[in-house]
Amino acid sequence: MKNSDKKTHIRYLMLVFMGVAMLVNFIDRATLSVAAPVMSKELNFSAADMGWAFSAFGWAYMLFQIPGGILLDKFGSRLVYGLAMIVWSIFTFLQGGVYLFPSVFMALFILRFLMGMAEAPATPASSRLSVQWFPDRERGFATSIYQTAPYVALGVFTPVLSWVISIYSWHYVFYSAGLLGIVFGAFWLMFVRDPLKHKSINQQELDYIREGGGIPELGSAQRQSQQKVSWAQIKTMCSNRMMIGVYIGQFCLTSITWFFFTWFPTYLYQEKGLSIIKVGLVAAIPAIAGFVGGIIGGMLSDYLLRKGYSLTFSRKLPIVSGMLLSCSIIVANYTQSIPVVIFVMSLAFFAKGFSNLGWCVLSDTSPKEVLGLAGGIFNTFGNVAGILTPLVIGFIIQATGSFDWAIIYVGSMGIVGVISYLFIVGKLQRLTLSPAPDLTASKTAVHN
Fold this sequence. Notes:
By secondary structure, the chain is mainly alpha-helical.
């Protein structure tokens, strides 16, 4: 640990790593959506086939959230996240060669499934690190940084990946994204550390984090030995009314995200008749708006908290107002003007970013003893949308030949989310787990 009278700011360096790691995460997720318009045509995939291919990631991502959370609590975010990044990037790279397999569709589905399995600990790991490295009054901003990575992935890299397709082929989208993740995964393992193990942090910064509500000790052997978690306690966490409302809200937000990460380029290509290069450029505009919305929403929430407003008001105001505004996406069904469509999509994605504080709420309310597991449970419920959204949209397009009802489905998620936060969530407060029963003592008492 560094000795200095002036407080260090190592937490911001860790935030840079968290942001870039999440960026790599979502670039790999976006590869299929960018390649889909050309790839599906070359490989003769129907809309329903693409719906299943898009959803493969979601199935694994949802199923492995809780196991991933358990691994995080046992081995820590640094090791689990770093190794996971390298593994999912290998699976991304291999998707560029699916045409070499006897069953192309099955190979694609399996590789996307394995990629989703490896990515399962990613967002819970970031949430866990934000609690380790940041006090409460900075956590909204920290969360907004790593949660805006999807918008950067779409805004910056969609045009780049579209250019790669136009110059080379769709295969190189997967090759380039996979190599990027493997390299950064190695850098993560070399440079990222927990607060108590980082050589450059000083006691003043540790005290600042701890006194502000952060938990630098999270993951230490001493803290892990302080609390044993039972399945009854996990059941309590899953059945708590506040958390159920937060889970529903996250499902709604994730539904909007997955439309933009799966079908949006195809929507522009097929429904609006744009070329693949124009798709890449146009798809970047809503993503940039989402990035701006995410930063403003996180900063507003922290500002309200610093001004003395309650945690409930400070977090709910951006979430509820943003989800309500995201319903504006439905207007796209009633215009043929490309500029108007892009404006509406940008407004909806800005609103989605503005309301994207679900992970911050989770960090504020989850039991401190099981933040990794809590993140896994939260992301399990939220990412049911990763399965349903691409499938529902795929079958709607297959049945109607149009995106109209698909857009209505996405827009309706904002209304459901608002209802959940206003009428189910209630007051935001940190849950506490009752001590797990001491079975040894119980048996001794019975014996005596």
